[in-house]
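ok here's Lipopolysaccharide biosynthesis protein:
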Amino acid sequence: MNNENDKEQIVRNEPTTFHQPEHQTGKEDELDIRELFSIIWKGKWIIIAVTFVFAVASVGIALYLPNEYKATAVVQPNESAGGGKLSQLAGQFGGLASLAGISLGTGESSDAVIAMEVMKSWGFTESFINNHNLDVPLFAAEEWSQLKNKLVIDEDLYDIQQQKWVREAPQGKTVEPTSWELYEKFKERIAVTQDKETGLVNISVTHYSPIIAQQWAKWLVEDINRHMKERALKEANESIKYLEEQIKKTSVAEIRAVFSELIQEQHKTKMLAQVSDEYIFKTVSSAKVPEEKVKPKRLLIVILGTLLGGFLSVLLALVIGFVNNKK
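and the structure:
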């Protein structure tokens, strides 16, 4: 009897579990969605107003930004330039030369790759800007006037009449833009890329003025060819002098023959450098004055600005709705 009473007591003490019907959970989710849309609907004027403001602001920004144009020169690396043959000879006879205590060196990058990196360097950029007096159109240009066909200069930075810089110098800087500031600006304007399949190199310049963009791209090709040409002549002369000294230091006939052949290759390098102005890059397609802008993408700016305004306005309407419901 006591056992039966204990069992009844245990049954009474067991917690009762209620299973909520699945269709009721679905109704609650449906109610939550309805409540969400209700809050959005109540805040529709906020959404419309904020989205409209963003749309108008996007149009204003898109119209305010000046047009930019890109000119591109397509060039082909000159395979005859550089010490290709010299590197082969050095690799072939480097072991023989090392027996005589002489190092020829074999690990060299192609001259085209070196030239591409030189164009991106601070030193080359500084010389390029100084040689062509590009500081004003690079740093103080504001936009290009198609009606007047001239570059508009920011008068807060440069006084055209007095031909001097008038900007408020940043802390630690001078009134005139420093070499580093000009280099940073120039980096934003140029792009040097190589097609991996064809090997062709694109040298592009972007600027407010289509004429300036074309002119700078042309100058870049000319200047890098001149720079690499002068570099090759200098290195060839130094190599010839070095090899002639090494010939005097060794009596091994094989090594003397190697050095003689290396000297001949250096004379060939000098001859090739002096023959053509297109020493490192041959022009495949010269830069032309662009007729269509590349920036800004005004339609894209307006679309993205409007979408951003719509998203933020919906978020704002939801926050306001939830706050009001809690009160």
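+1. Residues 27 and 237 are 89 Å apart (CA to CA).
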